[in-house]
Write a structure and sequence with these properties.
The chain has helices at 3-35, 40-56, 63-76, 86-115. α1 (3-35) packs antiparallel against α2 and α3 runs antiparallel to α4. By secondary structure, the protein is mainly α. The chain has 4 helices and no strands.
Amino acid sequence: MNEVDSRLDILQRRYHASLSTKRYEIETAWLAVRADSRDLDHRTMLAGLVHRLAGSAESYGYVEVGNLAERVDSMLGSETDKLGTRTQIEAVERVLENALPVIECLLAALQMAADSPPRDTGYKNESRADPS
């Protein structure tokens, strides 16, 4: 294993070690949103956590987690930043209700990933050592 592969392995292990925390943060934000769907701060927090997970999970070999996070991210979309009229609040509540089964699948996938050994990203540095 060369230096680049070694560094990638360290990053992979760090990401894997963070999965339990990511799950906890998403679950906590989700429960806060479910308790008070009118709280814009909680909705923004949930959307940000899911968005970051959607952008990173597949890069570290967690394809299912990434796909589920992308689905939740697109479901939450622009509706979660609306607050004001009764119609907007009802729209947010519908989005959250529809997101419930996907969020539950995402949390389960995160737990399974955290409980499993770190994934291999499949990337290996193909550069050759300098022959000189």
